[in-house]
Amino acid sequence: MFRHRLSRLLAGAAVSALVVLPLAPAATAAEYRGEISSERSATPAAAEATDQAANQATDQAADQVLTWTADASVSEYASAPATATAGAATIVFENSAATGNNIGMSHTLTFDTSTPGYNHDITLDILANPFDANGGRYEAEVVLTPGTYRYFCAIPGHSTMVGELVVTEDPGEDTTAPVVTADVAGQQDADGAYIGSATVSLTAEDAGSGVASVEYSLDGGAYVPYGEPVVLDEPGMYMLEYRATDNAGNVSEPEMAHVTVVPSDGEDTTAPTVTPEVTGELDDNGAYVGTATVNLSAVDAGSGVASVEYALDGAEYAPYTDPVVVDTVGEHTVTYRATDNAGNVSAPGSATFTVVEPSQEDTTPPSVTAEVTGEQDADGAYVGSATVSLLAEDAGTGVKSVEYNLDGAGYKAYTAPVVVDVTGPHTLSYRATDNSGNVSQPGKVDLVVVGGADPPDTTQPIASAQVDGEQDDDGVYIDSATITINARDGESGVAFIEYALDDFIFREYTGPIVVTAGGAHELGYRATDNAGNVTRTGTLRFSIAREGIDACPVSDERPTVIMGDVDSKVANVDTGNGCTIADLVDADGQWVSHWAFVRHVTQVADQLRADGVITETKRAKLVNAAKRSDVGR
């Protein structure tokens, strides 16, 4: 869990430490939609002519819709158009949960009106948030002129969210994609392999609107712009995929070139590379519970792998044909090596691990308690509404889920206090299940609700949380951090505030929280008003660095970065604070989807490349391995 939270922190390090939920609606539509204007002539007649031309252009190009989207990233828009044609257009800007913004982050779409060299005839400044009155989606009607517009996000800290929109005269509809050809040059042997190196040159042609860009992808990595011939000078097999886009937005079908490079002297003198992977259930100390399975994989770019061998705990080497299963309690070391068809033998490697006895079976169900709050009359009935809060605890394997059943309607998952506001008697039953499958005996509470104030309070409170403390250059808090939570409610008033630190058990908030434990942390918070309305749970993520403390005391130290069923072949080096690349990637974390994991790995790889920890080639290999892995599927 520690490494999981640390990697999530790295992915969202640029997010502000102040979170407000829910967002209050804007005072005017202009605050969200921005104000749009076009330069006009000085005379009324000229202005009228301009208006008529604009209206005519709008009618002719009503189907030109340009869409920008944003998500939880602060470094780039999720999607943005690159080109458009002159004339009327509908601009759509969406920053919502549907476009990937699941943390309530605000973004703007702002057109630059001051930087020299760009068109300045459109003023557009749209602020959008997933929780605003429009759900984060806005439209604006504009008239584009030939040239280039520069756009950006005006939120502080989002300065890399910038791009250009190239507008051209309408040449008539171009629906034909460019044609791209690849030419591979170099000395070849009798088998067609390139000796020493191969150079791949790409050429694109488009008879319509013209070629806008050419891109290529090497060995399944991300597409990058093609600027000059690609030189492949390391022995091995390569897959180079390429495509082109024209100025009308037509994209050619990807083509592929397969290239094999062999050593220039023709002799294979390089030993194979062997990668181990140890799998199994881990306890809190990093030991394998019951059994550990050792998988070995070997690659050789020259003559190919001939054999792989292993030795367990100092025994003689034996051929490796299937994964090695170790179920004897104690510490073990598996030594391994590989031989290629040219007779080169790799230096022995080793993997050391510990196997422990399985823990005793948990047969004790969780305990659940219920608390009913609300205004009561002299007879004990609740006036207007009653709020039922449930708390479950399990000393064994931990609580997995809590459920409730109101008036026999069937059990539902309990995620927040249950508000009962229908006049009459009610019975709420509840139960909990632990991670071993033990289910508690149902408990129940009986209550009566009588009529309350008219109209009732149905508006959620507004809650916010803020983290304070001394930070280093990376935004990590030094030694400690102080969390302050505030809430307000303009109708029935705030009843109480709750928080959950690094778990899902909510506790009542009574004052600032000082956190001193090193590493990444996640704090959830919510507020309940006196009418029982509960805010959406907010989340605050931060990290604390303690002097002399390893940020990843239980570290993934495998030689290469493994993501599920895929080996990225990237060396698993220490990133400078005791954490390896695999710790930051966190392939064993609880990912909500495969693409959430891929986005996370992309952000980690980009940051490591920017920090100089890895090269661009290794960055592409990490992202490609994430895409091909089964993590989050």
From TrEMBL:
<feature type="signal peptide">
    <location>
        <begin position="1"/>
        <end position="29"/>
    </location>
</feature>
<feature type="compositionally biased region" description="Low complexity">
    <location>
        <begin position="42"/>
        <end position="60"/>
    </location>
</feature>
<dbReference type="InterPro" id="IPR008972">
    <property type="entry name" value="Cupredoxin"/>
</dbReference>
<protein>
    <submittedName>
        <fullName>OmpL47-type beta-barrel domain-containing protein</fullName>
    </submittedName>
</protein>
<dbReference type="InterPro" id="IPR028871">
    <property type="entry name" value="BlueCu_1_BS"/>
</dbReference>
<feature type="region of interest" description="Disordered">
    <location>
        <begin position="39"/>
        <end position="60"/>
    </location>
</feature>
<dbReference type="InterPro" id="IPR013783">
    <property type="entry name" value="Ig-like_fold"/>
</dbReference>
<keyword id="KW-0186">Copper</keyword>
<keyword id="KW-0732">Signal</keyword>
<keyword id="KW-0479">Metal-binding</keyword>
<dbReference type="InterPro" id="IPR058094">
    <property type="entry name" value="Ig-like_OmpL47-like"/>
</dbReference>
